[in-house]
Every structure is written in structure tokens, then in C-alpha cells.
Write a structure and sequence with these properties.
The protein has helices at residues 235-241, 245-256, 294-305, 322-338, 344-356, 375-392, 394-407, 415-426, 430-439, and strands spanning 20-32, 37-48, 55-58, 63-69, 76-80, 83-87, 97-106, 111-113, 116-123, 126-130, 149-159, 163-166, 169-176, 179-191, 197-200, 203-206, 225-230, 263-268, 277-279, 282-285, 314-315, 412-413. It is α+β, with helices and mostly antiparallel strands. The protein folds into 3 domains: 20-198, tricorn interacting facor f3 domain (Immunoglobulin-like); 203-300, Neutral Protease Domain 2 (Neutral Protease, domain 2), CATH 1.10.390; 314-439, Neutral Protease, domain 2 (Orthogonal Bundle). Strands 4-7-2-1-11-14-13 form a 7-stranded mixed β-sheet, with no helix packed on it. A 5-stranded mixed β-sheet has the order 16-17-18-20-19, covered by helices on one side. Helix 4 (322-338) crosses helix 6, helix 6 packs across helix 7 (394-407) and helix 7 crosses helix 8 (415-426).
Length: 454
């Protein structure tokens, strides 16, 4: 297996540092849509993990105006090459708590890189923030490594008649003149790339299914609060497209364990989007993702599943991306069978057939930064899980998923962690079982009950 805790992350060696950890990001954003002008303040409450003479933050595209370190001016600060470097008057000691108060401004724009454009992006009439994997520094200074998870308070002031949506719960909403402020708190620890801001002419409405219903996926748990932020013009279409989301929620709670956050919000952008996006406690769809066909419904299920696999349980290093995408893809197949479509077995076999006819030159347990979002990582990751399920049986497999999400809730995980958990839950040698799927280029035979499952 690859090193479980590489530092820096080999896929993004310029991002993040192990010198300190942020406990709370307190962000106040003032954004004017017409001019794409952001004026902001970020207060970071942090602790040094080792002695250091400087604090390095990931930050790009915006201008730092003022910095205070523990309420006083630092010796100096500078911005270059996508980083903000703050040098305090006295070096930091290991385990020392400190506060950074950073004021900044500018015209935010997405970052361009291997994965296209990520970060803060203007819509036709609003804003979308897509942080995965390194877009967070496009709108706030941060320690941008997926293993660093923090609490967040995000306050967004913007034009009247627009709604700002962010992670966690809305705790305050105030209006002054032609400006409105929306304040959210995310108490469950969150990786920086999962922080988001969505701004549009949205109304917030509860999904009808969120009041609870009976059916094959029903559980004894109280229904999860589910809302959709959508323009009035798309409200009816959103209700149709998301009509079965509560069934999805109940199915996934039964299969994976309780939904890990207090609420779930789907934001429907007025623009067409190439792909939906996940963020902690919410997902973002385009207006083109609201049909009842399988392609749209699988994407809705996929983004919901990421709340467990990716958001609550977050990879410790990007080479383990299959722990997010393979699990979310397998959730699509589970929902297909649950909703009356092709069974998990049928979906798995179709994916295996497609892979078998393709090129076998990718190791999905370490695909490399250029290919970490390759569709083969998704499909073969899901097939690895199917192989484990076939070998272990449903009772042990779903007990494993419940234990996996419970034990590692709001934490960082690795492939090695999962194999240890699988060994314990199933009694199998899961290293031997999963190695061909995850760490060999050759595609294993399709898993068939009674024939070894790998």
C-alpha cells in the first residue's frame, strides 16, 4: 500500500503544511455581484504542531490588506506563488495557540490546473464555489490539506434579493439597506476543500419527502431535514427531480448508518453544470440535472452518498480518492436496485464489461494526480466493494459499512484503515482480496458468488 500519511501530499506538494492546525475558520465575506468584488476578513484560531518561525497559508488571486498575529502586527507578511507567509515577531513554540486576523480583497476567480477550473466562479446571475481538490485558496487563506479538518463560521453579505448558501446551519439573517447578511455555522469538522458559498436568486423550500414517509426504505429514525435552494422558476422542476431523494436518504441510512449532519440542502444553479458538486452538508446541481432519467438520478444519489464517504469520512491523502468515488459509485448501484432499476449485480457487471474492453493501465489505489478523477477510479473502486460484498455476504458487508462510518465519523481515513476494518468485520484476508482491484493494473475476473469473489 502507498504511505498512509505522506507529507506533503504527493499529488499536491505545494498545498498544506504540517506546521499548524486550524481549529476554527471565522470568515466574514462582503461580495458585490455586479463588480465581482470581494472584501473579506478571515480570523483563524490555530495551534502550532511544531516550532516554526513563519506561518504559511495557501492563498491565491486576492490581495492581502492587513494581518494581525494575536492582535498585533507581525514582523512582516508577503504573498507569492499562491501562498501568504506571515512572520511573527517571535517564533512559534510547539503546541502554542495563536490567532491570525487577515483582511483581504479583490476579484475572485477560479484556479486553473490539472482538473480544469476550481474555486470561486461567477454564474450567469450568482456565484458557485467548487473547492475540490484545491479551490479553497481562491476565496480564503487556509491550510489546504484534506487531512486538516476544522470548524467553520461563514458570514456572507451580498445584494438584496439574493440568497447566500453555505455549509452547516443558518444561524442568522439580517438586512441593512440593499444588503443582506447570511451567517452559517459548521460544527462538524470539515476539510477546507469542502467549504463553499453559493449565491443566487434562490428561495429555500423543504422537500415534500422530508416530512417522512413509509415504504421499503423506511427506518425508525426521524427524517433528516432536507431543503432545496432554487429559483422560483425552477421550483416545480426541482420537486420532480428530487422527488425520491428522501427514499435515497432512508436507503443510505439503512446501508451506511445515520446521516452524519443535522441537515441536507441541495442548491440548484440556474445555469447548466457539467457535473454536480458535493460540499459538506449540501450538494450543488445544475438546472440540467433535474430529470427522472437514470443519469440525473444516479448523480443525485452519488452526491448524497458523499456526505458519508468524502465529507464525514475524508481521505487523508489524495491517492486514496477511491475511498470517496468508489463508495459513492457503489451507492448509485444500490439505489438502482432499491428504486426498481437494474440490480447491483447487473450494474456491476455492466461496469466490469466496459472496463474489460478498455485500457488497463491505471492503478486506482494510487492513480496519480492527472487521473485521480478518471471514471475507472469510480467504477473499479465500486467493483472492489462488490467483490468484498460477494465474498463476505450482505450481513458482514453492511455491518462493516456501519462500523466504518461510525468509527471514523468526521475524521480522516486511508485504504489501510479500511482493510483493517474489513478484516475485523468479515474475518477475511481483505488485503489479499482487494489488492488486485486496487493496486494492480490487470482487471480481475468479475466476482461471482462461490468462486472466490475476486
Amino acid at each position: 500500500m502507498p504511505d498512509a500519511h505522506p507529507w506533503p501530499d504527493p499529488y499536491m506538494p505545494e498545498q498544506g503544511t504540517d506546521a499548524y492546525r486550524v481549529g476554527l475558520y471565522d470568515l466574514d465575506l462582503d461580495y458585490r455581484l455586479a463588480s465581482n468584488k470581494l472584501t473579506a476578513r478571515a480570523v483563524l484560531h490555530a495551534r502550532a504542531l511544531r516550532a516554526s518561525s513563519a506561518i504559511v497559508l495557501d492563498f491565491t488571486g486576492l490581495r492581502t490588506v492587513k494581518v494581525l498575529f494575536n492582535g498585533r502586527k507581525p514582523s512582516r507578511f508577503s504573498q507569492r506563488a499562491g501562498q501568504l507567509v506571515v512572520v511573527p515577531a517571535q517564533p512559534l513554540a510547539a503546541h502554542e495557540d495563536f490567532t491570525l486576523d487577515i483582511r483581504y480583497e479583490g476579484n475572485p476567480a477560479p484556479r486553473r490546473g490539472l482538473w480544469g477550473e476550481v474555486g470561486w466562479e461567477e454564474l450567469t446571475d450568482g456565484v458557485l464555489v467548487a473547492g475540490q481538490p484545491n479551490g479553497a485558496p481562491s476565496w480564503f487563506p487556509c491550510n489546504d490539506h484534506p487531512r486538516h479538518k476544522s470548524r467553520f463560521r461563514i458570514s456572507i453579505t451580498t445584494d438584496d434579493n439574493y440568497r447566500a448558501v453555505s455549509n452547516g446551519r443558518l444561524v442568522a439573517r439580517t438586512r441593512k439597506s440593499s444588503r443582506e447578511t447570511w451567517t452559517y455555522e459548521q460544527h462538524e469538522p470539515m476539510a477546507t476543500y469542502l467549504a463553499t458559498v453559493q449565491i443566487g436568486r434562490y428561495a429555500l423550500m423543504p422537500l415534500v419527502a422530508a416530512v417522512g414517509q413509509s415504504g421499503p426504505a423506511a427506518s425508525d429514525q426521524a427524517p433528516v431535514i432536507q431543503n432545496v435552494a432554487v429559483s422560483p422558476e425552477l421550483a416545480a422542476q426541482a420537486r420532480v427531480g428530487l422527488a425520491r431523494q428522501d427514499d435515497m436518504m432512508r436507503t443510505f441510512e439503512r446501508c451506511f448508518g445515520p446521516y452524519p449532519f443535522p441537515e441536507y440542502t441541495v442548491v440548484v444553479a440556474d445555469d447548466d453544470l457539467e457535473i454536480p458538486l458535493e460540499a459538506q452538508s449540501l450538494s450543488i446541481l445544475g438546472r440540467n440535472h433535474l430529470s427522472q432519467d437514470w443519469e440525473s438520478q444516479r448523480l443525485i444519489a452519488h452526491e448524497l452518498a458523499h456526505q458519508w464517504f468524502g465529507n464525514s469520512l475524508t481521505l487523508a491523502s489524495w491517492h486514496d480518492i477511491w475511498l470517496h468515488e468508489g463508495f459513492a459509485c457503489y451507492a448509485e448501484w444500490i439505489w438502482s436496485g432499491e428504486s426498481g432499476g437494474p440490480s447491483v449485480e447487473a450494474r456491476a457487471y455492466a461496469a466490469w464489461r466496459k472496463l474489460s474492453n478498455g485500457v488497463h493501465d491505471l492503478i486506482i489505489g494510487d492513480p496519480g494526480p492527472e487521473l485521480m478523477f478518471d471514471d475507472r477510479v469510480y467504477k473499479r473502486g465500486a467493483l472492489a466493494l462488490h467483490a468484498l460484498r460477494v465474498r463476505s455476504g450482505d450481513v458482514a458487508f453492511f455491518a462493516l459499512l456501519h462500523e466504518w462510518t461510525r468509527t471514523h465519523a468526521y475524521g480522516s481515513v486511508t485504504t489501510a484503515d479500511f482493510i483493517l476494518a474489513a478484516d475485523h468485520a468479515t474475518g477475511l484476508d481483505c488485503e489479499q482480496l482487494l489488492h488486485p482491484w486496487l493496486l494492480e493494473e490487470k482487471l480481475p475476473e468479475f466476482p461471482v458468488p462461490g468462486l472466490g469473489g475476486a
